Amino acid sequence: MTNQLNFTIAGKGKPILFLHGFCESLEVWKYLEPYISTKEQFIAIDLPGFGKSPLPKFHSDHEFSLVDVADIIADFIKNELEEPPLVIGHSLGGYITLALAEQHPQLISGFALYQSTSLADSEEKKEIRDKAVKFVQERGMEMLMPTFIPSLFAQENKERLKTDILEIIKTAQETSKETYIAYSIAMKNRNDYSNVLRNFSNTKAIIAGEHDPIIPIATSDHLASISTNIIYHKLKNTGHMGMIESPEASSKIILNLTK
């Protein structure tokens, strides 16, 4: 499966692997690449089903899970990288990062939850996912994304980044219904990975958006307190899309994690 993953590599040095969020692609990391690749090795992939990577095919009795995706990423690391990378997981990518850290801790040198959480979905969040799936089934991605994507950005950044927001909307609209539904169910059914965040022995960090509407700053504050060796950073004036809203600050934080 790994040879079907679309990916890009730039620069030399310690490998840093970037996993994007829901209905995104590796292109979302292009804002960080100029900063990262001049110092360390920048690697970004299209998660299975997104961008140019196909959604895995399983037997009909197999329920697609984020652990399946983590296993695919593990194979990618073993086959394509020369040493364990620092993994940066944004939102959905953070959930997969935690599954990877639980299942294959020897394959990564550390990780950062980049505007993500180790907590499982609340009942309210599960209901929201179910409603979104129904909306997409009935009306399609084209109708959902023009309102959903702008809501991810801090209000003060929307006008400044309107061209970038339109680009993210276009990428999200190109996500297939099959992928949207499969990942929505997988996220809804994912485990609570707080024990991984608490017990992982190598570098671990949380990078939060001060005005994140998806992962409230209070949630990140709580998660940062569950272990004394979690590195914690807050991005000022930033919503849920820090790689676009605060690329320089994000890059500086991430590069410091390799030291």
TrEMBL record:
Residues annotated as domain AB hydrolase-1: 14-247
Any one Pfam family match given in the protein's UniProt record, by short name: Abhydrolase_1
UniProt name for this protein: Pimeloyl-ACP methyl ester carboxylesterase
Organism listed in the record: Aureibacter tunicatorum
